[in-house]
Amino acid sequence: MSQGRRGIWNGRGKQMHRLILAYLLLLASPCMSFLPNFWSRVLTLSWDSYTHQYITEQAIINVTMETLTCSKKQGNQAEDWTRLGRGFWRAVGEVVKSNAAMDFLSSTRSDPVYHFDSERVDSAMLMLRQFWAQTLLSVQAKEYQSARHSLGQLFHSLQDFYSHSNWVEMGQRSIYLHLLQPEKPAIPVAEGKCSHGGILDSSRHMGAKGGINKDSTSPLFSPHHYLHVEAATLATEATLTVLRDLRDTVGPKTFLRLFSMRQAPALVFVIDTTGSMFEEITAARLRAHSIIQSRAASTEQPGTYVLVPFHDPAVGPVYETDDPNQFMQHMENLMALGGGDEPEMCLSAIQLALTQSPPLSEIFVFTDASPKDFHLFDAVKALTLEKQSKVTFLLTKDPNYTTESRKRRRRKKRSREPLSPDRFSLYSALSSMSGGLTIFTTNSDIHKVSAIVEDNTASDKLRLNSGFIAPSGDSTVDFLYYFAAVTNDTHPGLARMEGSPIAGLSAFLVLAVTGLAPDEEASFSHVTLLGPEGEKFQEVRLKASSSSSSSSLYSVEELVGWVDSVPRAPFYVCLTGQDSRGNKLERVSTEMVQPTHVQIQVLSAPHLVPGHSTVVNFDILNHGPARLFNLTAGDDRGYLHSNGPHSFHVAEQRSFRAQVDLHIPATAQAGVTVTLTLTVRALDSQDSNYAVTYLSVVPLDLDMSPPSCFVAERQTTCPSACNDSTWTVSLVVSDRGHSGLSTLLLQKGEGILTSLHNPPPREDSLEEDQPSPKQQNVHKDKTRSGDQHQQIRIKKGDPPLNLSEWVLDSSEPLWLSYTSCCCSAQAELLIWDLAGNMKRCHIISSQQSQQENRSTEISGSGQIRLLGILLFGLLWSSLS
């Protein structure tokens, strides 16, 4: 681990760069972009600007609602809206956070490759395609958090292209397909120069003066502010296109799962399987079965089921499934065997459960032993808070018992060993801060007490000190929140605080209220910061953010409040408001906020390449007196060179720069995510904090080239009367990368697509083989024409064709033939390779092709003239 010390408040120094610009890209030193989030509108006084946050949120919501509408189980749209829930909004928040972080992280905010600046068009497009390939890789590996992270990065760069280039100034009113589809026509980079512009561009008085950025509607920040809406419209359309391509590639079900749409919280069981746990395992089976039955009747997706057994010294293996029946079968096979000593590897098992389960999970731990691996508590705490998961312990042990009672239950005779009565305190601390419970019971009562597992997952129970009550009203209203600080650097906005907030310092509190239907009215006035016993620490007044003023039907209500001084003691966040009838609404956060005086800021999150090493850099900031700290690092794959702890001294209001090294084995599977957990703790107090970073393993030779599709021959000319005639197009499909062809789907068109092993016969024999589109009995049947032309026929609505089952070598070209009635002149074919790259192949009849060619010739000549005028203007601007 390397290190370095510097002052927290010292500026990093603003470097002045003299860079020559290309016509498509801007000189931004430092880089700029669409404003990051809603607070940027306040800082720039541009209330009607489109931000990265707004564009991203609206695009995800729109495509999600499209997907729901097109699904077989269509429901009331308002009901779908209320069922988006916390899981959906947290997933959207992860994408938005990753998008905004490109403007805040020191490793990306001034790098032109991430923002389409400084003539780095080729590098920026390559990076954009890498983000796309990485997103697909993560989704295919079911690493949804990593997929959301790379998707947010992709959106940021993609949206910046329309804000930073003169694409809009060229008169373009459609998106630039070549950015993510290299086979599409590219516009050459010209030599005209122009600056980024605006008061935050330190180069605006140097070299290429002026500027064309369209980041906001403010003339102060954006010289071409009058084209901001046009740029934002194209950025929105490009974002929508990426999301629809992603949905078509991974399928609607996986797409909805990526955004945790209408999905119940994951049900996670962590079970001690030592010999004394027979009754507990039986109780866990019964409760799991009961929960699965209740979820079967729900309209929500069934969610994920995770089982983590532990048995000293072994932990795991993890069993994860979406199939409740398979999960119950695995639970039935669980057995209690062996074991002798009282402490067990419980925290290791919980840590494994947290890394393998999605955020907002419900984790239930069944054990009768205290933790042997107490050194992992800080890492487990960090993962619990970061994922906002709830951990509940069911302990069949009185804390005053000795090991003799446990060993008698295993029919083993050993000497009595007195144990500390507070040996379960770590369990209580973890459950308390996560919003769970710690329950002590006995073998005879475990079946009754385990009912808390079922009740805790239900939405219609409230827990009081004396028991449970059923509320008189039912509401889906909930909220998410985070603490943030203003950044006035090159990208003004609210930067989210990672880990716990800093005690004694001021901060913004940002809340997103979820579960409100479009026709449901509610107002929220304030939040109260409550201590562990319910004592009132501070009341924070709330104001609606500029995002909440959006006229969109599907905008979550976002509120912001100013916390004068973050309390020094742990606290809950209580949201207060009222509904349209004047009834009081209150919601309390499940997890407890743990204020601190130390902070970790991760500076880089590089990709991991099999067979290579990488470094993750971070700063530790001490907001308290000078003192010693311990740093511990951990990862769930064992790639870290050294876990620590590492001790170091940090002066008052100073920082400590360090790094950890990871060595990735050559056998590492591409697509998997490595969860890196960093925890720091002061040696003289309870001050501690954490950072959790997700690192993706990507192959060195990542395939980013989509398949190709070209027309080999068009046959038959359609007459003016289209009903009685057909047209045919022969196509050749091949993979341009090294993965091989995977699947194909007829997305649009009323004709029949025929897949052939060999080139199709001549026109006369081909027309004999092709049926009329009205003949429905040809639906996906296999025939043989002679001995050499095996065929598969597909129509719109058929599931994707698995080409690996059809062609002997997926790297070889595939011949296709499409025949349709002349009244249906267009079709669209989707083709994927094994890496997930997709090609949209547009098929048109001969007449349609001629019409489009004539239209292209006319509009193309005008575009060339316009391009010449713009290049002259930009060049003149740069020389003046």
Question: Would you mind describing this structure in some detail?
Answer:
With 880 residues, the protein is of the alpha+beta class. The chain has five domains: 16-258, no CATH class; 267-467, 3-Layer(aba) Sandwich (Rossmann fold); 478-588, Sandwich (Immunoglobulin-like); 598-696, Sandwich (Immunoglobulin-like); 708-844, Sandwich (Immunoglobulin-like). The protein contains 18 helices and 35 strands. The strands form seven sheets. An eight-stranded antiparallel β-sheet has the order 12-11-13-16-15-14-17-18. Strands 2, 3, 4, 5, 6, 7 and 8 form a seven-stranded mixed β-sheet that branches. Helix 5 (121-140) packs antiparallel against helix 6 and helix 12 (377-387) runs parallel beside helix 14. The two termini are 51 Å apart. The model is unreliable at 9-32, 401-416, 458-473, 763-788 and 853-880 (pLDDT under 50).
SSE arrangement:
Blueprint: E1 3-7, H1 38-44, H2 52-70, H3 77-82, H4 85-104, H5 121-140, H6 144-164, H7 228-250, H8 252-258, E2 267-272, H9 278-296, E3 305-311, E4 314-315, E5 319-321, H10 324-332, H11 346-356, E6 362-367, H12 377-387, E7 390-395, H13 403-409, H14 425-434, E8 438-440, H15 446-449, H16 451-457, E9 462-464, E10 467-469, E11 478-487, E12 493-496, E13 507-514, E14 522-530, E15 536-544, E16 557-563, E17 572-579, E18 584-588, E19 598-602, E20 613-622, E21 627-635, E22 646-650, E23 654-663, E24 673-682, E25 688-696, E26 708-715, E27 726-734, E28 741-748, E29 752-756, H17 763-769, E30 782-785, E31 789-794, E32 801-802, E33 814-821, E34 826-833, E35 838-844, H18 846-879
Parallel strand pairs: 2-3, 2-6, 6-7, 7-8
Antiparallel strand pairs: 1-23, 3-4, 3-5, 9-10, 11-12, 11-13, 13-16, 14-15, 14-17, 15-16, 17-18, 19-20, 20-23, 21-22, 21-24, 24-25, 26-27, 27-33, 28-32, 28-34, 29-31, 29-33, 30-31, 34-35
Helix pairs in contact: 2-4, 2-7, 4-6, 5-6, 6-7, 7-8, 9-10, 9-16, 11-12, 12-14
